[in-house]
Write a structure and sequence with these properties.
alpha/beta, Rossmann fold, Tyrosyl-Transfer RNA Synthetase, two-stranded antiparallel sheet, 9 strands, binds tryptophan
Length: 386
């Protein structure tokens, strides 16, 4: 989606000649994560911090081991709060504009891990208002419908009832509007224009919306009447919101929200690059296992044109989307992953076999996930904000 906002946002125009774009509305091009750390002014996730988390959890999550989570802001402070016995909480969210794909699940699985490790509440915001305001092709009823649909995916990730509070901006407005107002009073139009690149032709709903996304950083504190340190596990494209929120937090008597950022799961099509959404580029949790397997079989790989060339020259896992799927999600066993890489580079493993192996794993995953999703329907109410 090409929007005037993107043009106005200097974070992306800075990049006109290169091709990486990372904004709340668009992620495209070849992503250079070191550059993102520099540009957004965050810190790389160190081994020491990863180990501090692993110690609480009892094991190091594969997403930490493989640097899928790669950057943070003030995570050390958040961990210190926890170590000092002070309350900590988690916050993440989703813009319900369609079905959920595997890339969305990365931070949600990680939230489940953190929730268990720190026995923390998770506030999960469904921004059906945002997606309605942003998209000309979606009605409000549709985005609200996706809120309830996508909530099943969140629950299927294994988060805990009682500790998880999923809410819709529209349907749960009575729980969030007052705090949203407190936040919005401290943000000027000129700030949101500078941070998000809004222009005169954007609707005014969009210019208010950032107050609601910021509000959730303080929601647990507000509800409990005490200061809770909020950690946001999410992809780095939402960073504009958190920079804005951090500027007003202390004025409101709350802690600045802290963040831990994950990389994007690459699409199945297109060599290593992020692209605007195409149905074949992603596996949705609602795809039939057969359709998902077909998408895997049709994916872009780092292979050569012919089996003969593949045997001679070897494949290129570093640009292969199939390898990325193993790496990010499907092959948690480091030794097996290393074996795939070795066999690929040597030319012994050809793409057809490698894809077929992944397709099988994706099918198994989906059958199990869809069963959990089905079960979640009857338990949805236990997870909604009260
Ligand atoms: N704006 C996000 C989106 O479009 C949704 C969202 C709201 C979110 N709060 C969040 C995402 C916190 C990550 C963390 O998807």
């Amino acid at each position: 989606m090409q929007s005037p906002r993107r043009e106005a946002l200097d974070l992306s125009t800075e990049n006109k000649n290169g091709n990486m774009v990372v904004t709340p509305w668009e992620v495209s091009g070849e992503i250079d994560y070191n550059k993102l750390i520099e540009r957004f002014g965050t810190q790389p996730l160190t081994q020491e911090l990863k180990e501090r988390i692993a110690k609480k959890a009892g094991f190091m999550h594969v997403q930490l081991r493989r640097d899928v989570f790669f950057s943070h802001r003030d995570l050390d402070w958040w961990l210190n709060q926890y170590d000092a016995g002070r309350p900590v909480g988690l916050y993440t969210g989703r813009g319900p504009s369609g079905h959920v794909h595997l890339g969305h699940l990365l931070p949600w699985f990680f939230c489940k891990y953190l929730q268990e490790a720190f026995d923390a509440h998770l506030y999960f915001q469904m921004t059906d208002d945002e997606k309605f305001l942003l998209r000309d092709d979606l009605t409000l009823d549709q985005t609200i419908g996706y809120t309830y649909d996508n909530a099943l995916d969140v629950i299927a990730c294994g988060v805990k009832p009682g500790l998880t509070h999923i809410f819709s901006d529209t349907e749960h407005i009575q729980h969030i509007y007052k705090l949203g107002l407190q936040v919005s009073k401290r943000i000027t139009f000129s700030t949101v224009k500078a941070v998000f690149g809004f222009t005169d032709s954007d609707n005014i709903g969009l210019t208010w919306y950032p107050a609601l996304q910021a509000m959730t950083c303080f929601l647990q504190s507000y509800r409990e009447g005490r200061n809770v340190a909020c950690l946001i596990p999410a992809a780095i494209d939402q960073d504009n919101y958190w920079r804005m929120t951090r500027d007003i937090a202390e004025k409101m008597g709350y802690y600045k929200p802290t963040q831990i950022h994950n990389k994007f799961l690459p699409p199945l099509t297109q060599g290593g690059k992020m692209s605007a959404s195409q149905p074949d580029a992603a596996i949705f949790t609602t795809d039939t296992p057969e359709l998902a397997a077909k998408k895997v079989m049709g994916a872009f790989t780092g292979g050569r044109e012919t089996v003969k060339l593949q045997n001679e020259l070897g494949g290129r896992p570093e640009i292969c989307n199939i390898y990325a799927y193993y790496f990010y999600l499907f092959e948690e066993d480091d030794a097996k992953l290393a074996e795939i890489e070795k066999q690929c580079r040597s030319g012994a493993l050809v793409c057809g076999d490698c894809k077929a192996r992944l397709a099988k794993m994706v099918k198994v995953f989906l059958v199990d996930f869809q069963e959990k999703r089905e079960k979640a329907k009857a338990r949805l109410d236990d997870y909604l904000l009260k």
